[in-house]
Amino acid sequence: MVIILKKLKIPYLNIRWKLVSTYLIIILVVLLVLSAFLLNTLYSYLFNQRKVDVLTDTNIIASIVSEDFTIDYINQKLPQMPLEKNARAIVVDTESVVLYDSYNETSMIGKTFINTSITNALLTNGKNSSNAYKDNGSWFIDATVPVIKNSQTVGAVYLIVSGDSTESIILHIQNSLVLLGALILLFVGIFSTSIAGVLTFPIERFTKFINNMPKDSLQHVQINSHDEIGQLALAFNNLIDRMAELEEKRRTFVSNASHELKTPLSIIKLLSDSLIQTENPDPEFIKEFLSDMNKEVERLTRIIEKLLDMTQMDSSQSSMQFVHTDIRELTLEVYDKLMPLAKNKNITLSLNQPDDEVILPIERDTLTEAIYNIADNSIKYTESGGQVDISVSRDLGSVYIAITDTGIGIPKEEVQKIFDRFYRVDKARARETGGTGLGLSIALDAVKLHNGHIEVKSEEEEGSRFTIALPYAEELTPMQTP
Questions:
Q1: Which of 11, 132, 303, 464 is the most buried (most CB within 10 A)?
Q2: What beta strand segments (E) does 363-462 contain?
Q3: Strand, helix or coil for residue 126
């Protein structure tokens, strides 16, 4: 039915009518199969019963004429037989010559009646037979019984009756089934329309709610059910929550990015305006201003580079190449890069690694940057004379890269925020050290790409410990982040 409606080019067929069409098609198919089976069974039963009845009547006639198989006796007894209307009884001798014919209009008395069933009955040990057949659009039932006298076949009785009455019964039942089927389809159509309306109402309400939702306001849909529709509504509400969270992060990110980019630009603008407005500036004065402007340009460049790194990391997850690499090589590389910075701040930088290889499938550049950003951050926030330690360890399930410092520490209420983009615990120190507020965020994204996580333990004025945990027992593939 759905296919037929589609062929009729109906522009829109909603789920309610699809459900109704499905119910009607199923019921129609079931009714057709049951009706065909019932009619076929009824046909076989009624005609078999009629054949038994006709054969019984034929046996009675054969029994009567077998008492005295003479024309006079037959003509005396058979007219008294209560045959049904339109029935025709014929009695033949062993030569198939008709001795009696109850049908007077075209009587075959004295003629030879050739019939297969009669021929078979006249044979030695002839048997009874009964058949139902259709001729010129009408049904007939005939039966043939041999007449046996003194253990000898002396003739045969042939009885034929109309089967139209039986067919009429079947046609009447068939018409009744058609009417009943139509009523059932009508009832199912009305009932299924109501049921489909109840089932699709939450969907229609859901769709209407989404279509009417303001573009600038994400709202939850209220559907109190525990079926698939309820699960869909719950999934939609969860999606709305994630979208709202992402939108809030986007707004915060844009606001912070705008602020971070605006600050060095404002300073550059202020310095350049001051330089322009100063008449006959001293060369040292110009050099100082240009030096300050250069620092702000470098700071602006660092911010832009970090933003590009984050964008590149977000867009290249599926194309990352994971190669089995010794983690000790990464930590040694970071150690060598940061040693000059540590010495410059009079900070002791140490590296502790196991003697055995620690092989993991990793994306080298991203994981190296993650380790570098955390260690660099530890050095920046550790006072002169402090200590920063990088260590590698593993157990049966994970590899751990720990960066421990004796720096200023992080307040407990700030620990959950340090991985937010542009977030700084100490904004003044961050500007002094040239920080962008993106390093830890990039580090966390890189670790998540390796199906890992970062644990942070910190006490104010005592230091912090960042532990990168990477799964060791399974092959790593990039994690899909929302």
A1: 464
A2: 387-394, 398-405, 453-459
A3: coil
* Whole-number Å distance between alpha carbons of 390 and 82: 118
Task: Kindly provide the residue ranges of all beta strands, DSSP E only, lying in 277-434, ordered along the sequence.
Answer: 323-326, 348-352, 359-362, 387-394, 398-405
Q: How many CA atoms lie within 13 A of 339 on its CB side?
A: 9
Alpha carbon distance 471, 403 (integer Å): 18
Say which CATH class 256-314 falls into: mainly alpha
319-471: which CATH topology?
A: Heat Shock Protein 90 (3.30.565)
Closest CA to 468 of 380, 406, 377, 382: 377
Q: Which residue has the higher pLDDT, 236 or 62?
A: 62
Provide the token pair at 179.
Answer: 């009417």
Phi-psi region for residue 385, left (φ > 0), alpha (ψ -120 to 50) or beta? left
Residue 88 structure tokens: 């025709």
- Kindly list the domain boundaries of the chain, sorted by start residue: 1-212, 256-314, 319-471
Strand order through the sheet with 129-135: 98-101, 88-93, 152-162, 138-149, 129-135
Determine the Cα–Cα distance for residues 97 and 91; give it in Å rounded to an integer.
8
**Any idea which fold 1-212 has?**
Beta-Lactamase (3.30.450)
CA triple 69-75-77, angle to 5 deg? 80
pLDDT tens string 177-231? 889 888 988 888 888 888 877 777 777 777 777 777 777 677 777 777 777 777 8
Q: Report which residue type is found at 116.
A: T
| Cα distances (Å, whole numbers) of residue 285 to 270, 293, 431 | 15, 12, 23
Q: Residue 277 and residue 285: Cα distance in Å, rounded?
A: 13
Q: How many CA atoms lie within 13 A of 121 on its CB side?
A: 29
